[in-house]
Amino acid sequence: MNIRKLRSIYHKELCDKLIRIRKNSEKGDYPNNADGDSKISVKIAWGILNQICDTPQYGNLSGQTAGKIFEEITKNFIEKSFDLLRHLRPGKWHYFIETDISHFEQYKDLAEVEDELKKNKKLASTFGQDYIVKPDILISRESISDEEINKNKKIIDIKDKIATLTPLRKINMESPKQILHASISCKWTLRSDRAQNIRTEAFNLIRNRKGKLPHIVAVTAEPTLTRIASLALGTGEIDCVYHFALNELINAIHEIKDESQLDMLNILVDGRRLRDISDLPFDLIV
Length: 286
Hints:
This protein is an alpha/beta fold. Helix content is 44%, strand content 14%. The protein has helices at residues 3-17, 39-52, 63-84, 110-119, 121-127, 146-149, 192-207, 225-232, 246-256, 259-270, 280-285, and strands at residues 20-22, 30-31, 57-58, 93-97, 137-141, 179-187, 215-220, 240-243, 274-276. It has a 6-stranded mixed beta sheet. Helix 2 crosses helix 9 and helix 4 (110-119) crosses helix 5 (121-127). The chain is globular and about 75 Å long. The relative contact order is 0.14.
């Protein structure tokens, strides 16, 4: 098994379980990651679909159902591909969907803050209550025992009374929590409100952490480059946006010869703000 094969399996799963063709007698049928009211969105979506799906299925899925399926299939791809690279980033890794960030080392104090705000309405009105978010996909790492640290040679001894505050040493924590390594937002499509929700979630992760900032990224199947830009361009709240089929998106853009979309594609890719889903496991190793 290699990354290319996993990427193909990822697309096949999406074709089987998620990608559906919506019937529209007036404007023509279109894939369910396209905006049916936008000709350019429909053209690009069809261009991608024709490259990754052998037999497109007709039907309809609610937005919430589509989002859940996209999260699950994307999590599976990340887990399997990241596992192939385990020799580059050893450790005990775990993968979650929609889990409170307060369960992890850098954000464990937020649970107490949230409890206090619930008890005190005056404080709640001043500071708000949106401290604990549930990102779509989370990757975490377990802390390490001293036995594992000293596996090859004696590096540290409990009697030395040093390195006693780092959460990576399991012995330092009375109740060890896993260290949050990455927060991944999954959005089957992007509209202005979804892009803003991702930014708000990212700000929360940045300002409320105590310790290492996890990777903060987004994965999308949005076909329209101008909508992807609404999230990818900016001040860098997120590390990068990853497209579920960037190579196929590039081919589709060149095929329809839309200059505005092509210009934006070049800005995003050359500006290192947009990458392919196959790049994500490698970037998470860093």
